[in-house]
Write a structure and sequence with these properties.
This protein has helices at residues 4-11, 15-22, 30-42, 49-54, 72-87, 101-114, 128-131, 158-171, 186-197, 202-205, 214-227, 239-251, 269-273, 285-301, and strands spanning 61-66, 91-96, 118-121, 141-145, 153-155, 176-180, 206-209, 232-236, 260-265, 279-282, 310-312, 316-318. α12 (239-251) links the parallel β8 and β9 (260-265). The protein is of the alpha/beta class. The protein starts with a helix and ends in a 10-residue tail after the last strand. It has 14 helices and twelve strands. The chain is 45% helix and 16% strand. The protein folds into three domains: 4-47, lambda repressor-like DNA-binding domains (434 Repressor (Amino-terminal Domain), Orthogonal Bundle); 61-156 and 285-314, Rossmann fold; 158-282, Response regulator (Rossmann fold, 3-Layer(aba) Sandwich), CATH 3.40.50.2300. The strands form two sheets. The protein has a six-stranded parallel β-sheet. The chain has a six-stranded mixed β-sheet with strand order 7-6-8-9-10-12, with helices on both faces.
Length: 328
């Protein structure tokens, strides 16, 4: 790959002048600009982004940290961020924390080494202990898909979404309820609140299933549904888990949605393309990413010194066959 020094030698122009031309300085003689740019194009000159960052120039690189790049929801987030960033002349560096705080810290170190212009973060934790290391960043950054106090955030309320799912299930109606996920999840907290608002006796009618031994958990869940004489409503914390649960239920001969109704979260292609289709919470990823790009660029323009904004995107329940009861 050709360097600035080589362009200077080939064009007979000083290296400082070549640098000014390639960095867009308008004070250089137009004829010299034409000569330098022609040489750069002919030899496919590519700027050294790291060197530019050391000189205080923009790298035109943005970074995103997600917890699980294999999850279709986060793949969709990355895809949309890349699309929106490209419109503004930026490229995206992707980092995968793999649900590990140690790996998340390593991603943070790498981002600082690459000297990107800004960061989108899907954090593992939103409490102060989880967010504190990122507060040391000298570049603009914001949280996407979640919300944290004192940090620019673009998100949907998982708690509100849980309430929406509770209302949907009680309207079907459902007599027994299952949450597949951790009880610390704000989706679960909202689900519980929503059920209570609908006068559901939580202690008698709600059970949570979560076990790192997935096979064991599914056996217990299917057994519970088969024993139960009433219709069961199952809320899985994301579409991947919903698909796993659906396969286990159908494999055991459980009728969906007659015996059990199922709702996922994220409205990925999994929920849209499966048969039966899975009801799921649509987080409006396209709107979220468009807003996040706009907000981060605004922070970059103001050197990160801007009143903290928490922008909530309204979630919507996409109802499909897994929870759609046909009226008799």
């Amino acid at each position: 790959m050709i360097t600035m020094a080589e362009i200077a030698r080939l064009t007979g122009v000083s290296q400082p002048t070549v640098s000014r031309v390639l960095n867009g300085n308008t004070s250089v003689n137009p004829e010299i600009v034409k000569k330098v740019m022609a040489c750069a194009r002919e030899h496919n000159y590519q700027p050294n982004m790291i060197a530019r960052s050391l000189n205080g120039s923009r790298t035109c690189l943005l970074a995103v940290i997600v917890p699980d790049i294999s999850n279709p929801f986060f793949a969709d987030i990355i895809k949309n961020l890349e699309h929106e960033a490209e419109k503004e002349g930026y490229s995206i560096l992707i980092f995968n924390s793999e649900y590990s705080q140690k790996k998340e810290r390593k991603c943070l170190e790498l981002i600082q080494q690459y000297r990107v212009d800004g960061l989108f973060l899907v954090p593992l934790r939103t409490d102060e202990e989880g967010i504190c290391p990122f507060r040391q960043l000298t570049i603009p950054w914001l949280i996407i898909t979640k919300h944290a106090e004192g940090v620019h955030s673009v998100f949907i309320s998982h708690k509100k979404a849980g309430q929406v799912i509770a209302r949907h299930m009680t309207e079907i109606p459902v007599q027994k309820y299952i949450f597949v996920g951790k009880k610390t999840d704000s989706k679960y907290i909202g689900f519980v609140q929503g059920l209570r608002e609908q006068q559901v006796d939580i202690e008698k009618n709600l059970i949570d299933f979560w076990d790192m031994d997935k096979e064991k958990m599914l056996e217990r869940l299917v057994s519970f549904v088969q024993r139960e004489i009433h219709r069961v409503g199952i809320f899985a914390f994301n579409d991947v888990e919903a698909l796993i649960v659906m396969n286990a239920l159908l494999g055991a001969g459980v009728d969906l949605p007659g015996k059990a109704v199922l709702v996922g979260f994220d409205n990925t292609f999994i929920s849209q393309k499966m048969i039966p289709g899975i009801t799921s919470v649509d987080q409006h990823i396209d709107e979220m990413c468009q807003t996040a790009i706009k907000e981060l660029l605004g922070l970059m323009h103001h050197d990160g010194k801007k009143t903290v904004r928490h922008i909530e995107i309204e979630a919507e329940l996409a109802v499909r066959a897994s929870s759609k009861i046909e009226e008799q």
